[in-house]
Inverse folding.
């Protein structure tokens, strides 16, 4: 019977130069078998202004080599996340051609060997590309953008659901599953109410974030526990039962919990009128569904009640007017996170007072601690419903803040929040904390726990580029990654009223996905153009000069911020636009354009406003205090 031992592979080998992977992880090998990996320093030849031929000696024994190749960058430690090419052979004398490089530029190059669980790199070699004129790579010039329509009225009905792609999406939640698909689930909302009668919490999936397959509803009918719990609480305060409640199905959150388990927390709201003049007087409930196979849309199993709306003003959760309906914690808009320490948390709430953080039992998916009755005359009386996280306007039912989304990256928890009304003004803010329960602080140093007000920075806002209707209502987001630190922002977008000659265009709810870049000090910036799978080939400095459109996003309630011309001259001066008279420079290694001390983070994206939707270059960045967001697009 074979036994396995952990040994360190960083030992001198018989021949060849070689280097361990950067983190020097251990690997398991069979007892008595000696592994052998050698990766020689590459020989480099500049073939042109954009191509380098690389050759290296590679040896490997008693290990399974998946691939061999070369990687290069303008910084001194290139990895396979930078520009790379594969070698045709796995061992021996291997070679490959690195392409799409910049002219007269020095590159650092390493050979690499990829195993199932490790990467080995060679020492670094350098070479400078030849003189010449930079040519935009054919992968960019030949790129063809997505063809699905923005004004999707012609395919909005239920009979055309196989053509929806991202049509009829509202309040999306997105996760990457173990089968390689991204799964998206949403509020029951659609143009013309196309979802009605076809189940709830509808799903779809994609492998490339561009082409989405509609899957259908995950819940056939409202679970019986909702009515039972509702009337249990009504009876406790002397109210008659509601025999046939009206329900709303809102804003689920879905997560891959590991070990083949997937959880969806969903909100069901009882929308019955209490009097002839009051609405939303009944409470909302958050429940849980689980599956081990999200590809089977019928496999979601309901696990029941998790939490409901709770009042710190006794039984005064309804009143004579709509604004009289009050809860300290309104049980809608859940987001779910597993901390690096393995704690599970549900952050939820909207409008009424702010957000609460409820710790979850990892095994059951329910509250870690018992819940009291959901009313009392103080915050302490309902403390079991969560720890207070954030308030935009402390003590006011009119928070105009909802849809929390919390993610963790590099030591920080990031809280994304939807601000204002959803039809047009919807915009997104982000704050961060080193603790899941806060305090969460904006880029300008504002603690948003109490009276957070206009938290900064603004991540998305109603906007319009030239020659297009633009988008409004862009918020209530999902933030997710591909597990390789490539991050994305998804939400619905709405067209302005009257767009395309449609008086009801604002009822268009189109799912939108945008790439996120992270600033050098760790703040997320969302690209202005939607994701279209444009090849992520490095941008050359020669591509930066020219005509741009810039949008300076300063908060204006319900106003689309419009673009204006910006011209970057070849001599590194700005000759038109808000930075006219200043100089610009470009950090090619980090793909950052700097103008007047403002860092703008560049990326190749699809130009959704142009005919044929070709590839273009966009940027996003913040002012130093975060109060202004800059979005730009190259024309």
């Amino acid at each position: 019977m074979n036994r396995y031992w952990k040994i360190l592979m960083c030992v001198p080998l018989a021949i060849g130069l070689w280097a361990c992977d950067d983190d020097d992880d251990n690997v398991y090998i069979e007892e008595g078998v000696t592994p052998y990996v050698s990766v020689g320093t590459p020989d480099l030849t500049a073939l042109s202004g954009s191509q380098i031929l690389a050759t290296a000696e590679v040896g490997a024994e008693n290990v399974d080599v998946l691939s061999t190749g070369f990687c290069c960058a303008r910084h001194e430690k290139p990895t396979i996340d930078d520009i790379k090419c594969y070698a045709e052979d796995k061992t021996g004398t291997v070679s490959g051609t690195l392409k799409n490089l910049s002219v007269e530029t020095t590159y650092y190059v390493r050979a690499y060997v990829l195993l199932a669980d490790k990467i080995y790199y060679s020492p670094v070699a350098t070479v400078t590309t030849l003189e010449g004129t930079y040519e935009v790579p054919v992968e960019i010039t030949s790129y063809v953008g997505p063809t699905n329509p923005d004004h999707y009225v012609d395919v909005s009905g239920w009979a055309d659901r196989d053509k929806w792609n991202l049509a009829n999406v509202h309040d999306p939640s997105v996760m990457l599953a173990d089968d390689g698909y991204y799964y998206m689930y949403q509020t029951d909302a659609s143009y013309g109410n196309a979802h009605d009668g076809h189940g709830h919490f509808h799903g779809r999936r994609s492998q490339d974030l561009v082409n989405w397959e509609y899957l259908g509803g995950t819940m056939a009918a409202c679970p019986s526990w909702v009515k039972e719990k509702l009337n249990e609480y009504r009876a406790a305060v002397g109210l008659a039962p509601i025999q046939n409640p009206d329900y709303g199905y809102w804003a689920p959150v879905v997560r891959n919990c590991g070990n083949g388990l997937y959880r969806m927390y969903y909100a069901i709201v009882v929308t019955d009128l209490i009097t002839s003049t009051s609405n939303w007087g009944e409470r909302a409930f958050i429940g849980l569904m689980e599956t081990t196979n999200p590809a089977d849309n019928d496999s979601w199993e309901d696990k029941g009640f998790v939490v409901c709306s709770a009042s710190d003003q006794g039984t005064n959760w309804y009143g004579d007017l709509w604004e009289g309906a009050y809860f300290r914690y309104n049980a809608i808009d859940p987001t779910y996170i597993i901390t690096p320490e393995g704690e599970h948390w549900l952050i939820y709430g909207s409008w009424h007072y702010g957000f609460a953080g409820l710790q979850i039992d990892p095994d059951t998916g329910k509250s870690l601690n018992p819940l009291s009755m959901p009313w009392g005359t103080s915050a302490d009386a309902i403390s079991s419903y969560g720890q207070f996280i954030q308030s935009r306007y402390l003590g006011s039912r009119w928070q105009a803040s909802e849809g929390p989304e919390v993610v963790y990256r590099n030591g920080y928890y990031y809280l994304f929040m939807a601000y204002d009304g959803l039809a047009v003004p919807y915009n997104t803010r982000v704050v961060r904390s080193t603790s899941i329960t806060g305090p969460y602080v904006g880029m300008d140093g504002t603690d948003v726990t109490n009276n957070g007000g206009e938290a900064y920075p603004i991540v998305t806002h109603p906007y319009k580029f030239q020659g297009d209707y633009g988008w409004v209502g862009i918020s209530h987001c999902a933030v997710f990654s591909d597990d390789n630190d490539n991050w994305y922002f998804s939400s619905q977008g709405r067209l302005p009223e009257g767009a395309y000659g449609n008086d009801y265009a604002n009822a268009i709810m189109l799912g939108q996905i945008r790439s996120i870049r992270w600033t050098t000090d760790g703040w997320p910036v969302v690209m202005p153009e939607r994701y279209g799978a444009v090849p992520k080939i490095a941008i050359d400095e020669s591509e930066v000069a020219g005509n741009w459109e810039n949008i300076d996003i300063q908060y204006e309630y319900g106003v689309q911020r419009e673009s204006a011309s910006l011209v970057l001259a070849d001599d590194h001066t700005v000759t038109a636009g808000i930075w006219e008279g200043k100089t610009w420079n470009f950090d090619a290694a980090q793909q950052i354009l700097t103008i007047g001390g403002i860092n703008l983070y560049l990326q190749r994206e699809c130009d959704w406003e142009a005919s044929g939707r070709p590839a273009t270059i966009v940027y996003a960045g913040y002012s130093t205090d975060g109060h202004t967001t800059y979005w730009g697009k190259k024309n």
User: Anything to note?
Assistant: Residues 1-30, 275-279 have pLDDT under 50 and may be disordered. The two ends are 66 Å apart (CA to CA). The first helix runs from residue 138 to 141. The helical segments are 138-141, 224-236.
